[in-house]
Amino acid sequence: YGDLGATRLHVTPPMLRHLLNPAISKSFPDNPCFLTGTDRVSHALRQKVEQAYPASLAITYSTSQLGPITYLPGGQILDVPESVGFAVKDVDILSVDHGRNLNQSFEVLVSKSWPIICVTNDGRERVIVDRCTSHPTGDLLRIVDGHYVFCGRADDVFLFRGILIYPAELEAFLESHKEVSEAVVFGAYSTVYGAVPMGVIRTFDRADTVAVRDELLKKSKQLYGFRGLYALYVNVDIPRNASLKALRRVLAEQYRMH
């Protein structure tokens, strides 16, 4: 892209990780702008991009049905961890249960309007405002200092010993380690517990993978108690969909406990 003179690039979070490769970063012009979204962009990933590039990184939360819902401009991406910014114009963000606890996540309903330009039979343009009301996205958000913070997909959350486990929370912990480039947390199917917290990480080159794994497993137990990770797999293949998003359900079945 840099060889073509591009200064703005739209990427998914998994693609953003590939741009951390020094061989790739050298091909970009000075001060490129990356726009990313559609999935969680961890605080650790934001920090690593800012360290690798003199770049402007902007973040949007959007869906295929509604398009952009929030926007976080460059220069603010580290202000609130996991923030996806603020609602864009003509968007109202609601909750499925019609209540918002500022200290808890809520499942999102979105109301959005946008203009549609129509041409009448006599050739005149007419603007019609289309509005989508109460569209469930299946995502979880919470509000921190006026920012909307992405907490993951509602169907990614799982029960372990009667307690809800939020993969995004554990992934943020794993990716805060300097040697971890990507983390995916899932609930491995169990006939006894329902689902057991486990994770997969990808590390940077030359990392001591055994030491990193042991350190993270121990620290997860110290920080989260029984909600911590019970197994951590390093540099194994991560199943993905066409947009490179990790498939947690495939991992949950792959590491099923008997």
The Cα radius of gyration reads 20 Å
Separation of termini?
Answer: 48 Å
Instruction: List unreliable stretches of 5+ residues.
Output: none
Mean pLDDT: 84
- Beta percentage is 35-45%
Strand order of the largest sheet: 1-2-3-4-5-9-8-7-6
Largest sheet: 9 strands, mixed
Instruction: Tell how many strands the DSSP assignment holds.
Output: 14
Class computed from helices, strands and strand pairing: alpha+beta
Principal-axes geometry comes out as globular
Kindly state the percentage of residues in helix. 10-25%
How would you describe this structure to a colleague?
- By secondary structure, the protein is an alpha+beta fold.
- Helices cover 20% and strands 41% of the residues.
- The chain has 6 helices and 14 strands.
- A 9-stranded mixed sheet has the order 1-2-3-4-5-9-8-7-6. A 3-stranded mixed sheet has the order 12-13-14. Strands 10-11 form a two-stranded antiparallel ribbon.
- A hairpin with a 3-residue loop joins strand 3 (56-63) and strand 4 (67-72).
- The longest helix is centred in the last third of the chain and has 16 residues, at 209-224.
- The chain is globular and about 70 Å long.
- It starts with 7 loop residues before the first strand and ends with a helix.
List its salient traits:
alpha+beta; 20% helix; 9-stranded mixed beta sheet; 258 residues
